[in-house]
Design goal:
This protein is an all-alpha fold. The chain is built from 15 helices and no strands. Helix 12 packs across helix 13 and helix 13 crosses helix 14. The protein starts with 18 loop residues before the first helix and ends with a helix.
Length: 384
């Protein structure tokens, strides 16, 4: 009798049925994807940011085309508007920070006075000589300077790379808008786009990116006004600069608002005589965050990125460790786009459900109907 060959790990349709082999292949694909994202960080960040801006400017470009503008002129005018807004914000913030830099010596003197007061309190309370405190502070400060030199060099190189990336974004955005028709035709010609799934996913991603970016810009504007008004009410110096900085850091979910509160608290401690002003700064940040989380963001941003809190936190940790600060900024929209893709692929729909948030269940309206016999009886009584 002929020996029966062992079963093949692949079925007749070419699908892999061995669980261990499928796990190994999935693990290798995950490792390869993470490695590609790690080594190609600058390129992927550039393409992703340019893609988001192209989705944002696409309606404006189409509107100009409907007014008989050539495609190249409509795309160029849209990108020029983006450049003007960006450099306008940079010039305004640069002027504010230059004014802040002029007052740094006075703030340094105030910091030294606060440190001396704290040392005197520690010496009177815990009987620790000020000489020992000063020696300990100098030792820690020298270690900080040594480590800070390396951080400064890396920050300077990262800033230069980021500036080069920023300069390239308008050009990439222009070419993406210029080739929008070719990209649409490309997605429609893909062999596995028979029912239009790929094109539908791309359109959903474009809508998500546009709504997320417009919503975040609107939220930043609202928070900048609210924080600045609160700091002005406290009589805090540099209120406009501190309010705008806190609003810009609010883009980072969960931790961004409190990072933006550090500098205002320090300024309040150094420029005011009472610590109640620092508590007032914390109160302003807390109130604005309450208003933002309960009223502004749900109305403005809405459910454009419908991720649950656990998925959002894991996305922040994962993309932050992969791409650093830019990963923190882009973690939520990237994960939201992944969810859109998962929702369209049958084998990945459970993962899309795991990333999403539950929709609020609306109570059903109960209609009370009278039995047929009672209606007939009522009709008979009316006839009588």
């Amino acid at each position: 009798m002929a020996e029966v060959p062992p079963p093949s790990p692949a079925s007749a349709q070419g699908r892999i049925t061995d669980p261990l082999l499928r796990y190994v292949l999935a693990l290798l694909a995950l490792i390869g994807t993470v490695s590609l994202l790690w080594f190609g960080q600058s390129l992927f960040v550039l393409l992703f940011v340019a893609g988001i801006f192209s989705f944002l400017l696409l309606p404006l470009c189409q509107r100009l085309q409907r007014r008989n503008w050539p495609l190249w002129l409509a795309a160029g005018a849209s990108c020029m508007l983006l450049v003007l807004i960006f450099f306008g914000v940079i010039i305004f913030m640069g002027a504010q920070y230059a004014h802040f830099g002029k007052d740094l010596p006075a703030l340094q003197q105030s910091l030294l006075a606060k440190v001396n007061d704290a040392q005197a309190y520690l010496e009177a309370r815990f009987h620790v000589a000020q000489e020992r405190q000063t020696a300990w502070i100098e030792e820690k400060f020298s270690d900080l300077v040594k480590s800070g030199g390396t951080v400064a060099v890396s920050l300077f190189s990262a800033t230069g790379a980021a500036f080069a990336t920023v300069l390239a974004i308008p050009f990439i955005t222009f070419f993406l808008l210029l080739m929008k028709g070719r990209f649409r035709e490309f997605f429609s010609r893909l062999p596995y786009n028979g029912d239009g799934t790929v094109l539908r996913v791309v359109e959903n991603i474009a809508g998500l990116s546009r709504q997320w970016l417009k919503g975040m810009l609107a939220v930043m504007l609202f928070l900048a006004v609210l924080d600045t008004a609160g700091f002005l009410a406290l009589g805090l110096e540099y209120a406009v600069l501190l309010g705008i900085t806190a609003a810009m850091l609010n883009v980072i979910p969960y931790i961004g608002p409190w990072l933006g509160a550090i500098v205002p608290v320090l300024v309040a401690l150094l420029t005011k005589d009472s610590t109640m002003y620092a508590l007032g700064v914390v109160a302003v940040i807390g109130i604005t965050q309450f208003i933002d989380n309960n009223f502004i963001t749900p109305k403005v941003v809405g459910s454009s990125v419908s991720l649950n809190p656990l998925a959002s936190m894991i996305a922040l940790l994962a993309w932050g460790s992969l791409w650093g600060f830019m990963g923190l900024l882009l973690a939520i929209p990237i994960t939201g786009m992944m969810k859109l893709v998962f929702d369209e692929i049958p084998g990945l729909k459970p993962w899309g459900y795991l990333l999403g948030e539950d929709k609020e269940l609306r109570p059903r309206k109960r209609t009370i109907t009278l039995p047929l016999r009672r209606k007939k009886a009522g009709n008979r009584r009316g006839a009588d």
